[in-house]
Write a structure and sequence with these properties.
Shape: globular
Strand order of the largest sheet: 1-2-3-4-5-6
Number of helices: 5
Structural class: alpha/beta
Number of strands: 8
Helix content: 25-40%
Radius of gyration: 16 Å
Strand content: 15-25%
Order of helices and strands: EHEHEHEHEHEEE
Length: 187
């Protein structure tokens, strides 16, 4: 069976305070077992990296102190106010830590985190849906350039908008689609 990239709980947050640690552990057990067969990479995104760190400290021994290699973890950073989430995320020993700057609501300077190696992947996208706030291409361009200077793969997900998310092949920045992702043993 060919492996896949699986975005876990795309419409919620696994590390929300109302999600019991026992549920998170059961979910990680399933992902860990799939990793042993080198079948899938699981991408977990949270706005609560502090809770993820707490969960890991309570459960690391169950995984012999080794974060499952096929589980990538990221945090959302929509503007500079939330950039410190990256410092907390960096406390996790995941092989791939990523930032999702989506919805990108303002210019961001992530250069220090990118250059330090704390982030192995940068995803950028505009907001979509009713009431979507605009994303300036110059903000995405700046993040792309910061990522490239640091040697970090850059993925431009979507321009955003109310009716047309302008994602996929329509997510063009400076005449190119940007779909880089980190190297992995899986799929």
């Amino acid at each position: 069976m060919k492996g896949h990239y699986v975005f876990v709980n795309s419409m919620s947050d696994v590390f929300h305070p109302r999600v019991p640690y026992t549920f998170i552990r059961a979910m990680f057990d399933v992902m860990h077992e799939a990793g042993k067969a080198r079948r899938h990479v699981f991408q977990v995104l949270t706005k609560r990296p502090g809770r993820a760190v707490g969960w890991w400290y309570d459960n690391a021994q169950h995984y012999d102190g080794c974060w499952p290699k096929n589980v990538w973890i990221g945090t959302s950073v929509e503007n500079q106010k939330y950039a410190p989430r990256i410092t907390v995320l960096a406390r996790l020993p995941a092989p791939i830590r990523f930032v999702s700057a989506e919805p990108l609501l303002d210019r961001l300077d992530l250069s220090a985190w990118l250059a330090s190696g704390e982030v192995q992947w940068l995803i950028v996208g505009g907001e979509s849906g009713s009431g979507a706030r605009p994303m300036h291409r110059s903000w995405a361009r700046s993040l792309r350039d910061q990522a490239h200077r640091a040697g970090v793969p850059f993925f431009f997900k979507q321009l955003g908008g109310v009716r047309n998310k302008r994602g996929g092949k329509a997510a063009i920045l400076d005449g190119e689609t940007w779909t880089q992702r980190p190297q992995s043993d899986a799929p």
